[in-house]
Design a protein that fits this description.
The protein is an all-alpha fold. Helix content is about 75%, strand content about 0%.
């Protein structure tokens, strides 16, 4: 009975993990389909970056129509950002240039996104605070993108796979870092979509402006702690 129970629990856990991130439910079949075509991973990456920048341009404008179009383009950007890696592996076309292009694209899209939302909110409310929050979020994200380059370990090596993998003695700062990391991972598009349709993208500005700084401080703290030990 115990063996059956453990097997069932393992199967349920595997099924749950296979569903997340949600974007993978679409990106995997798309990558398999594109593997049969002449489309290259770098072409997918560049198209995804263009969609992300197009989304940022839409978010510069007021109105639910612009927000909806921007959210769709943002989703496509995230979708292609997942497709390019799978496609590179399927076609055996992985390269350092492709990985660097993907990283730069991720940074550029999010940098433009937060600046655009901050600018749009300042134009709407007349309060420059929103623009400064957008700048803070964009710069915090930049630090988070650059800091791993100066660390010995790669970001993937430092990443916690799930909440269950957190150490029992994890501090509240570690928990904040974990949840912020989850926020900006592959399903961030879903948050953007929901908030855009509710005309509430402004909610992300203070959260990201503070969260981005907390996250890079946690990364730096973890690196320093590793060096001293």
């Amino acid at each position: 009975m115990d063996t059956e129970h453990n097997h069932s629990a393992t199967s349920a856990s595997a099924a749950k993990e296979s569903m997340f991130p949600l974007i993978r439910l679409v990106s995997r079949p798309m990558a398999i389909a594109l593997a049969r075509t002449p489309v290259t991973p770098n072409a997918v990456t560049i198209t995804g970056i263009a969609c992300g920048l197009g989304a940022a341009w839409c978010f510069l404008h007021q109105g639910l129509e612009w927000g909806g179009i921007g959210a769709v383009l943002f989703f496509v950007s995230y979708l292609l950002d997942n497709v390019d890696g799978d496609l590179a592996r399927l076609k055996k076309m992985s390269s350092r240039f492709g990985a660097a292009l993907d990283d730069i694209g991720d940074w550029l899209v999010h940098f433009a996104f937060f600046l655009a939302v901050g600018y749009q909110m300042t134009q709407t409310t007349g309060q420059p605070l929103w623009a400064w929050l957008g700048v803070a979020a964009a710069l915090g994200g930049t630090i988070n993108s650059v800091l791993p380059l100066f660390q010995r370990a790669t970001p993937d090596a430092e990443e916690v796979a799930s909440f269950a993998d957190m150490a029992a003695d994890a501090s509240w700062l570690d928990l904040v870092g974990f949840f912020f990391r989850g926020l900006v991972k592959a399903d961030f598009w879903l948050i953007v979509l929901g908030l855009a349709l509710a005309d509430m993208l402004w909610v992300l500005l203070p959260a990201a402006a503070i969260g981005a700084q907390v996250f890079w401080m946690l990364m730096l703290r973890k690196s320093l702690r590793t060096i001293h030990t």
